[in-house]
Amino acid sequence: MNIKQALDGAIKKRVKGNTVSHGHCLQTVQDVLEDVGIKLPSRPASAYIFPSVCVKSQEFNQAYNMLVGNLGNINLKELPKWSILVWNKTKDHKHGHIEFVFEDDPSVNKTVSDYIQFDRSTYDCQKVPMAIFIPKF
Questions:
Q1: pLDDT tens-digit profile of 87-96?
Q2: pTM for this predicted structure
Q3: CATH top-level class for 3-135?
Q4: Cα torsion for 23, 25, 28, 33, to the nearest 10°?
Q5: Which residues contact 74 (CB under 8 A, 6 or more apart)?
């Protein structure tokens, strides 16, 4: 079984088709990564802190960081499956949000964290995620 198949299995096991958030997006993303043997240097308590941990991982390239510059030619709907989107904290979401791109077909635009989401293009009025990580696998 390759890592992408293992990730598919880990998501199915943990999310179980759920389409409603339970507020455990970061825990689910970290657990799924660990389920398939991707060890991160630490487990931050909030999603918006995750980029500082993931940037140290050998499994992902950082494609975007809002502190560095604009999205350039990155289209959220064309990111490869298993890319990680990290959304900043807001007044209503003090930990931010994190999710995997969960579909290779850009017409579907499905993401997953602790639940399956469709048509992700913004998060709590944010038009751009604070960080994007592209898998090396």
A1: 999 998 999 9
A2: 0.90
A3: alpha beta
A4: -170
A5: 63, 64, 132
